[in-house]
Every structure is written in C-alpha cells, then in structure tokens.
Automatic annotation (TrEMBL):
Protein name per the record: Amino acid/amide ABC transporter membrane protein 1, HAAT family
Bilayer-crossing regions: 16-35, 102-123, 190-216, 237-258, 270-298, 310-329
Membrane-related topology note: Multi-pass membrane protein
This protein's GO CC annotations: plasma membrane
Keywords annotated in UniProt: Amino-acid transport, Cell membrane, Membrane, Transmembrane, Transmembrane helix, Transport
Organism: Tranquillimonas alkanivorans
Superkingdom of origin organism: Bacteria
Length: 343
C-alpha cells in the first residue's frame, strides 16, 4: 500500500506538469484553432525566467572583509550581493533564498508579452493555413527559442534551488497512519502539485465566472456570431494566447527546483503534452487536465521496478500505448467535442 501511495504522489507530480502545459495548448487550440508546437518552448522560457531572476538577485561586488584573512594574514575580498546592500544582510539573503517563488512576479508579465508578440507577429498569419503548416512554423520557432537560450545560458543544466524551508522531505505516511519513514516525499513536489491545482482552478474560474471568460467561451463555440455582436473577439483571443503562455511559463518557473532548467527541457515535455491533449480531447479543457493527471499516474506505476522487470521498457511507451487505444476506440478523446478529430 505504501508503494501504491508513493506512485500516486509521483504521478500527481508528473501529471501536474503535463496538465499545466496541456491546459495552455488546449486554450490555444480551442480559441485560435492553432496547433502550437512552440508551447514546450514557453515552458522552457518560464524556467529560465527563474534562472534570470536568480542571477539578477545574486549580482554582487567585491568588498574587503577585515575579519577574514588569507594564509598570509591579508584581509580577504568577498562577494556581497547588491540586494544585501539595499535590504540588509538578513532580508537580502531571504530574498535570494526565495528567488524561485519571486520569479513568478517576473514571469507573468514577461510570458504574457512573449505570447502576445508571438501570436501577433507570427501565428496570426497561419490561422487559415493547414495544421501541417502550423506545426512546421511553430516547431521551427521552438528550435529558434531553444538555440537562443542555449547561446545565452549555455548547454548545461542550471540549478535553481527551492527555498530552504522546502528543501527537505515530508513523512507523508505518518499522516495516513503508516509507520515513520515509510512514505517520504519531497516538500517541493507537494508544493508544485498544490501550485498546479491553484493555477488550473484559477483558469477555470476565470473562464467560467468573468465576463471576459464568458465571451471567450462563446467565441470558442461560435466565433462568427460573437463577432457579429460587435465584440472584438480577435483581441480577446490574443489575450488568451498570452494567458496560455503565462500558464506554461509558470509551470516552468516552479518546475526548476525539481529538474534543473536546460535548453531542451521544452522539447522533453512537448510531445508528451500533445499526447495528453489528444487523449483528453482536442479543445476540451477538463479533458486536458484529467488526461494529464491520469497519464502521469500511469507512467509512474509503469516506472516501478516490478513492472519494468516484467515488461522491460514499458515506462517509456505506456503513454503512447494508451493514446493508441484511445484514438482507435474514441478518436475525439476522452472528453472531446463530438465531430472533432473524427472526420
């Protein structure tokens, strides 16, 4: 039972990233009808927003510390971050320690701007083009963004540690009545799951309960009619592209402490996220979220040593096997609209 619970936790962790990226993909496809293969790059850019904030907060200058000397007795020069000069040593150290959560404040406007510029500058020209053209141009854009990050940040992963308060592990089993040290799980992975749940709930609440969201949902159902009512639906869809980019970016920001950001991390998640979207149903937001968590849990159970010993390599293909079965039996996906992907 403890192994089952642990694999469910691992699955929710993976599923959180899949669900957040797939949610943004579905928002873009549902509003604009665009298959955006650059969405994984937006996830990667979000992670590097955290890297950028960390580097800015740790910019430093040399000062002479008379209390510390080298082996010759000369005072040592030490690096002091500017943030400590501005806010004081203890407050400055705390700000640096919490650089990843603080990067959220930086990432939101940056990712919205990137999304709007991407949509207005490139993708709007491919609305009426075949999906194959959309895939090619957005995939090319993803490669360009990937190489830009590689040029400025290098090819090696960059550590973005979680705040010290969340670097340990929680004895999760004790909460469930197990003996101590049976189910140990990292704090930050639990934080990531809760963060993903909040973002997902926020997106659904925004679409369900705000006037802007209601108009967007109406536009997704019947774009022409909404336009005839005098509403500039194109402008709202552009903003939705920016919001979808922000969702992917925030997923990347908070994922940094779990997997050190690198220039190809977007591609690592992209294909899996598209599989999640297809399984959940193209254009279905609840389907994208449900499929993300479902496939994350399935992948986690398939990664157990007992399962791999029985069926070697199953953890690498389980998601694709599920996708094949779903597409053969229900082409529109688990929760897709009737007629979508069924022709």
């Amino acid at each position: 039972m403890d192994q089952i619970i642990l694999q469910i936790l691992n699955g929710l962790d993976k599923g959180s990233a899949y669900a957040l990226i797939a949610l943004g993909l579905t928002l873009i496809f549902g509003t604009l009808g665009v298959v955006n293969f650059a969405h994984g790059a937006l996830f990667m850019l979000g992670a590097f927003c955290a890297v950028t904030v960390q580097r800015l907060l740790t910019l430093s200058h040399e000062v002479v510390d008379p209390e510390r000397t080298d082996f010759l007795g000369n005072p040592l020069k030490v690096d002091v971050p500017y943030v400590m000069d501005i806010f004081g040593e203890s407050t400055g150290a705390a700000i640096i320690d919490w650089s990843v959560p603080l990067a959220i404040l930086f990432a939101i406007p940056v990712m919205i701007l990137i999304g709007v510029v991407m949509e207005r500058g490139l993708i709007k020209h491919f609305y009426k083009r075949p999906h194959a053209d959309q895939i090619l141009v957005t995939f090319g854009l993803a490669i360009v963004l990937q190489e830009i990050i590689k040029y400025f940040y290098g090819a090696n992963p960059i550590q973005t540690p979680a705040p010290e308060a969340f670097r340990g592990s929680l004895d999760f089993g004790v909460w469930l009545g197990f003996e101590a040290n049976q189910i140990i799980y990292p704090y930050w992975r639990l934080v990531y799951f809760l963060f993903a749940a909040i973002i997902i709930a926020g997106v659904f609440a925004f679409l369900q309960f705000t006037t802007f969201g209601m108009v967007v949902r109406a536009g997704m159902a019947d774009r022409e009619t909404v336009g005839l009512l005098g509403i500039d639906i194109d402008k709202r869809f552009t903003m939705m592209f920016g919001i979808a980019a922000a969702v992917a970016g925030l997923a990347g920001v908070m994922y940094g402490p779990i997997n050190a950001p690198n220039y190809h991390m977007g591609m690592d998640f992209l294909v899996l996220s598209f599989v999640v979207v297809v399984v959940g149903g193209m254009g279905s937001l609840p389907g994208a979220v449900a499929a993300g968590f479902l496939l994350g849990i399935l992948e986690s159970f398939a990664s157990m040593s007992a399962v791999i010993d029985l069926i070697p390599g199953i953890n690498q293909i389980i998601i694709y096997l599920v996708a094949i079965v779903i597409l053969l039996t229900r082409p529109r996906g688990l929760m897709g609209r009737k007629g979508v992907m069924e022709d």
